[in-house]
Structures are given as C-alpha cells and as structure tokens.
Amino acid sequence: YLFPFAESLLPEAARQLGAEDVQALAGRLVEHGLLKHDAAGVAWTDVGRFLAESLHRRTCALAIDADENVWVANGWDGCLALSVANPLAPQYVGRWDDSGQPVGLDRKGDQLYVAAREAGLQIIDLTQYQVRDALRYYARVGQWHERSDAWDVAVSGDYAFLADGTNGLVVLNVHDPSAPFFVAHVIASMGLRPAATINSSSL
Fold first, then answer.
1. Within a 10 A sphere around the Cβ of 149, how many other Cβ atoms?
2. Exposed, middle or buried: residue 98 (CB in 10 Å: 0-12, 13-18, 19+)?
3. pTM, whole model, 2 decimals?
4. Three-state DSSP state, 21
5. Cβ-based neighbours of 99, under 8 Å, separated by 6 or more
C-alpha cells in the first residue's frame, strides 16, 4: 500500500526485501492489530489504515509512554493516547490538544516533547492529568516558541533538538521542563521539515 510512495525514502537494504521478509513483517502487523488476514485476503484494520495513511502524509508521529500507551501526534487533532494492551482492540484513553498543530514527538521520562508547528515546542507532563468522561486530559508544563515552525523534535540528555522550518535546527536546554531556553541554532538553507527528521541516535 505504501511501498510505491516510500521506496525512494527507504535504505537500500529495505528495497531488497524478499517475499519471505515482507510476509514476516506483515505477520507482525497482523499480531499488533494493524492488518487483518482472512479468506478475503489481506487488508488494513481501521487503526492500521489511519496510522499508515497519516504516517505517509507525515501528519502523524508516534511515541510510547511508561504505561505502554501509544501517543499519536496528529496535527489539528492534537496528541492522542491509545492503549494497545489488547493489540486487536486499541482503546482511546487520553489526549492533549491545548496548542498548535502537533506533528512530531519524543519522550524522556515523564515528559512528552511535542513539535507543534507555529506553537513551537510544547512539553507535556504524563503524570499530570484530569479525568473527564473516562478520558485523561494531560497538562502542559512548559513551552518554547519564537517565530516557530516546529516539525520534529528529539531529546538527548538536557537538550531538545527542534527541526524548526526556516529557523533551522534549534537547540534548547530542557533540564527544567517548565522553563526551556534557547541555546543555539543552525540555519539550513531550505529549512528543516519532515524530510530532515532528526533522532537522538544520530545527533
């Protein structure tokens, strides 16, 4: 479904996957409730289709919290928490949607770091929430936004690295999540957007 669109973005090793490799990967997606396989063939489940299409459009990013809930940053829909304790029946358990257009996520400890386009970096405390109608509504503890266009974020140690559009790579000190502050930035000629996604393993 996504391979023709994503092939140019895949490393060479992934493009050389054989039929057995693809079958094994599909089996894992079935186990996690993202694909279904029956007499009619193979098809996405509703949750699988949502994630696949959102990831393809780069309107969705994922993180996993200490309770093994999957967090989805889904643009104007905010950040949604899904319990996958039963992979065949994911449950919507919480959200945060107070500011901006979340498109990138990273987690460190009890904090969820959200790249939220014009709202910059939003920092959510996963231990602070109110329950309404059986859903957890989480609280923001800190933020940084100065003419931002934040597309992605990676956290390493006391620093958050923000792919911030035409502002380039912005480095923030987040030792105190309630008061992040600017440290440095590197201007990229074309800006940093999803095609230049960053991660802590390659900083």
1. 18
2. middle
3. 0.66
4. helix
5. 116, 119, 122, 140, 143
